[in-house]
Each structure stands twice: as C-alpha cells, then as structure tokens.
Amino acid sequence: IGKEKFHKSQHWGYRNNVAMLVGEDKPGIGGEPLPGQKLKPKYSVFPEGIGSDAPAWVAFDKQVLSFDAYFEEEAPDKNQELYRIRHCKIYYLEDDTIQVIIPQVKNSGISQGTIVRRHRIPLPPPHEDQFYAIDHFNINIEVILYARRYKIIDCDQFTKNFLRKMGVRLNPPAGRPDDPYTKERQKILDSMKPLRPYERIDTLKQFLEHNGHILRFFCVWDDPESMFHDPRELVLRYYLSDDTIDIKEIIPVNSGRDVVPLFLRRDKLPKYAPTGLYQPGTITSRTVLNVFGKLVGNRSRYILDNRKTGAVHQEFYRDSDLKIGAVINVWGRKILLCDCDEFTKEYYRTKYGIEDFTPVSYKAPPPPKPEKTFPPYTGFGSEEDSLCSCMGLLPKPPQKDFKKFMEKDRSGMESNILRFLAKLVTDSPIDKDRKFIISYFLSDDTISVFEHIQRNTGILGGKFLERGRIKKPGQELFKSEPSEYFKAQNLFVGARVCFHGHNFLLVDADEYTFNYMEKHANEFSVADVGVILKKLKDIAEPRSREVRQVFAATDPEHTKVIEYDPFRNLIVSITDGAFSEHEIMTLGRYYSVQDEYEMDLHFLLSVAQEQLKKNSFENFEQLSAVLTYNDREKCGVLPHEMCRTICKSFKLPVADDDLQALLTMFEDDHKQVEYKKFVDGLNWRENQIPAFQTIKVPLKNEDDWSGQPPSLPVKGIKYLPLLDDLFGKEE
C-alpha cells in the first residue's frame, strides 16, 4: 500500500545468440532489492562530485601500487624442511586488478614468475560476491587470495604517497623472515670453506666450462727425410677442457703410406721436446717441505710449499701459442699451422681480439668443379619431361612413383580419392550459387573439378577441369627450378585455392575424406586431434575458468551436450578466427555423440524379402517343416543357434548380420526364437512387405555422393570431455 513504482528490471538477455541471465545486479520490482540481494555501492571510495570525472583506467593509467609480501608454503615431501618462506610482489593496477609475482631466484628448483595472473580477485567467503579494492591494502596486514594467506610487510615510496593521499593511515613496516632451509644450507656451505690457505688446484671448472670445445687447426709438415719431399697434411686438435693436443694425419688415396689412427696421441705437448727423462717423483703437481728435516731422527712433518722451491717447471703449448702461420715443435718436427675452422676463429676473435685469419697456402688449389645448371623450361611438354632431356644424351621418360601408385590406387571400397564441395569466390551473382566437386587422387597427386548440374541456371554443368596436376599460383613459367604443385595437405574445409585463375572456397567434404584424413592425422595437421587440442590449449588456457563458464552457460539444462552451431560459434569466439573450419569439424566429430539407430523389424524383413525374391527362394514350407521337426517338445520355440544352423543348411540368401538381427527380433523373454513367426515374416509370397517402405535411415553410398552439404557435421557434442582434455578434470 502506498507503492507507486512497479517497473521491472530486465534480467534476461542474449549474449552470442545464447539466452542467459545478464542482470544479476539489477534490483527487483520498483527498484527494491530482491530477497537476499546485496547491491554494490555506486562509488567505491569518494562520493560523487569529489575527484576526477575520468574513469579509473584513464586517471590512473600506468600507475602501479607495489607491495612486498611473503607467504608460507608447506613442503610435505621433504624431510629437511616443513615449510618454505616465499617472497613475492603484489601489484595493484588501475582497473582494480591484482597480480602476484615471485622474483626469479637462480637455481631455486621451484616454480617462479607469475603465480596469480592479472585479474580482479574476489574477497574470501562470506563476501565472495565483492572484489578487492584499494582500501583493503595496507602495510603489516594479511590478505587472503584464493585461500592463500599473504603477509604484506612493506611497499615502495610511490605506493606510500598514493595511500596517504587516499587518506589511508599506514602501519609500520614488518620484518622480512628468513627461509629456515635456505639459512641452514648457507651454514653448511660456510662450514665447508677451509680455514687454512692451502693451495687449491681446480680443474673441474675448466672441464665443465669447455667440455666438448675443441680448437682445430689444419697443418702441414715438410718431411726432410721423405723421398719426394711432399708435404704431409695434418689436423691438430687442441682440447680446451684439459689443454691437451692430438694430431691426425690426412692420408690421400693411393698414396702408398700406412694408415695409422693418430700421428700424435692426446697429451700435453711440451714446447722444448725432446728433453731428457726425469726420475719418478721429480715432476709433481705440488711441492712439500720437511719442517723438521733430520733434527728429530726419523720423525718428519711436511707442509705445502706455495713458492714451489726446487720444482721442475715444464712449458707446454697453450691456446695462446697457436695461431695461423706459427711453427710449433712436435717432438723435433717443425709443423706449420696453415688454417683453422670457424669455431676456432670465433674463439680467438672473442678471447684475444684477433681478426686476421688469412690462411697460409701450401699447395695449388684444385680446379673448380663446374656447376651443373639446367636451362629454363621451354614450354614444350611437361617440365619433368623437358628436364629428362638435359640429364643425358639419350633422353628417358620421367619416372613415376610406382610404389605410391600401387599403395594409393583404388582397391575395393578404398577409393583413395579426397572429394570436397567448393564454390567460387567471386562477386558475380550468377557464379555465387555454382557448386563444384573437387576430387584429389592420392595415387598420382592429380586434381579434377566437376560442376554440379543445376536446373534453370543457364550454366552447363559437368566436367569443369580435366584431371591433372595443378601448379600453385604466383610462380614463374620459364625457370630452371621445378614448379610446386598442389598437395593433399593444401586441401581442407575452409581452404582457399586458385586453379588456373579460378578462386575456390572449400566448404565441405564427403565422409570418406574426413575418415581418411583423421586416419592419417600425421600427414594432415587439420585432422590431428592432438595438434588441434594443443593449439586450442595454448590459446584458451589463460582464461580456462571463463571458457568453462561460457560452455556451461550454453547448456542451461545441464545435459552435458550442446549442438554443433553453438559449439562452432564458441570455438570461433575463443580462438578469434585462428581455427579453420576443418579443424572445428574435426574437434566436433571427435567429441560428438554417437547416433544409435534403432533397427526396424519391418525394414529388416523388407530387405530380407527383397534378397529372397531376387534369388527365387520359395522353400518356406520345407524350412518350416524342418524347424517343427527339431522342436521335440512342440512348444513353438527353438534356440537361436539351432535356427541359424538350419537356415544356413537351406542356403538362405541373407547376409549373416541381417540373419542374426532377424533371429534376435523374434526372440521371446527366454531368448528362444519363435520360428513360425520368423518363417511367416520371410515368406514373401504370402506376407509381402512393400520394399523399403519404412526405412528410417537412408543408406549412404560414397560413390553416389552428390556433394550436397549435410545440415550439420554432427548433431550433439559432449563438451565436458573436451574441457577435461584442455584444462584437466575440475575438482
């Protein structure tokens, strides 16, 4: 009583052609809130008239509030630690979105980077219908983001100034706790450092940094004792991991020299070899001193001598001694370094700044091998045939891929022909409605185009393009290189192809084409469900929750099945047009609901009678007499297998599958066949059923495919398995 406003808010609407609830925050009748509804305030912090009129994303553009925080993470699978202290950054951006990032720590072994992507985060229950705002943040407080408790300990200077201008009283900063396991590890590392300054020979670092790095030089040795004084070609390899050298000799063919594995085995190469032999123990890696000497009898105590008093020093070749043009001493043999490979040049260029790598010539260069070039295509005959005339004096016909022809030629029901329905891409109103059937023959990669005959169009249908290989457009005609032709991978639903200046759009394909491409998914990426799912996951994974909600909104009755058209529209909107029509069809076929047709008894009887009539089978009385004779108890029923055996003995011209189905149709509750009704149903003389009168599912013949597109590729699609394969099962 006394109420004057009775207007109602619009709560329902359409989004992407799907009816759904769009006005959750709108009030009820007369502007009053609905029972249990909490209306959000119109202004979050400041009342109307105070502050800038610009929206928040404009007024606070490129302004980020940064908070330092940490959280405790349990480590139940480790004995060394019960929990970890993870330090992170919480960013609050201009549109009330929040992002949480863990700074990168080298060799931490745990996941780092963005742990909460940028979006609006709801408050913890029971206020989950509201989102975090600027007034929920302060220093030395705890915030809960998705059931994880973050302790804010500090913020940067810009954030402090911004919060003070907003009227927020800042708390004093809190201390940053240390991770107990990291602290314990640091203690262990500190305890491993020696207290006494012993000499440390570290060869592991050099090995780890340069393992597999080899400097290669091409050398020559002019052997003075050789009979013909011919130069000996050598390859010197310097191993950076341990400063060793080995040399291998390049022995020419038919040179008469013995083949040996190595000219010099791998070892450190002394500069002034050969030298005299040293006694064992003279050359050591460390030098020790006897502190007591002979003062205390036989007792002795040794310490390391850092000055290496009395040590024998040997000089070995290092990488700094090797360069192009240098002569090195290899145990008395003078070897000249003439050239090096690209890795060696880059190493000396980076480490020593050497830029001059001019090789030393020691033999006459071999005559250049003439390059075999082919003349351009003349235009006569095929390109392959013209190319064969350039291969030799006696031209031979081009060889065809006979193995491919035998594998992909028509065999039984396998046609190995991919057929697509296409239309012209044109602005002409006459040509827009023309329909074409493009057939791709896998045996020889040829293509033929047939135009569908339509009445009263004024266009003569039939053969549009003779069977043959078709070149891809945009190639030069008279050139030496072979042309590129259309392959089977270039044809799929949604593809645009150009055949001799005619642009076609492939809009559909027959069932055999879809099955063949899905069976050979490794050759056709558009029919590979694994590739399509990976591609879709990369696009949709950042917004998995939103995708789940969109699919759930498309199925308001919770049937777990949606039709193909809404499914296609959802995939197109999610991928933003990145998927072709064939990929969407493959996805729909993979997750489609399999149709289970209920077999019609009259349909089976009509098919069986038609077969019996064609084969002039009329021995129904004898068949009935034999069945009655085998019925010893005269109950009118016989076992299923016995009836089948008797029918086979009469050579009943009915397929075995149809016979099994018919016997199953005439079974009673005890799985016994009523043979009298069975024989009466087959008797086409007395109980004739009009042929194919009650067919519910028409038979499909692939050879008679007219190219007409079906109404939908599939009827229903189970979207829950698709979402589970993309984002995992939702708990």
UniProtKB/TrEMBL annotation:
Q: Report the protein's function.
A: Microtubule inner protein (MIP) part of the dynein-decorated doublet microtubules (DMTs) in cilia axoneme, which is required for motile cilia beating.
Q: What is its main location?
A: cytoplasm
A biological process term (GO) from this entry: regulation of neuron projection development
Coiled-coil regions listed in the entry? none
State the name under which the record lists this protein. EF-hand domain-containing family member C2
Instruction: Please report the stretch or stretches of sequence annotated as the DM10 domain.
Output: 61-167, 211-352, 414-521
Q: Which UniProt keywords apply?
A: Cell projection, Cytoplasm, Cytoskeleton, Repeat
Query: Where is this protein localized, as stated in its record?
Result: Cytoplasm, Cytoskeleton, Cilium axoneme
Lineage, top-rank taxon, reads: Eukaryota
List all membrane-crossing ranges: none
One Gene Ontology cellular component = microtubule
InterPro entries in the record: DM10_dom (IPR006602), EF-hand-dom_pair (IPR011992), EFHC1/EFHC2/EFHB (IPR040193)
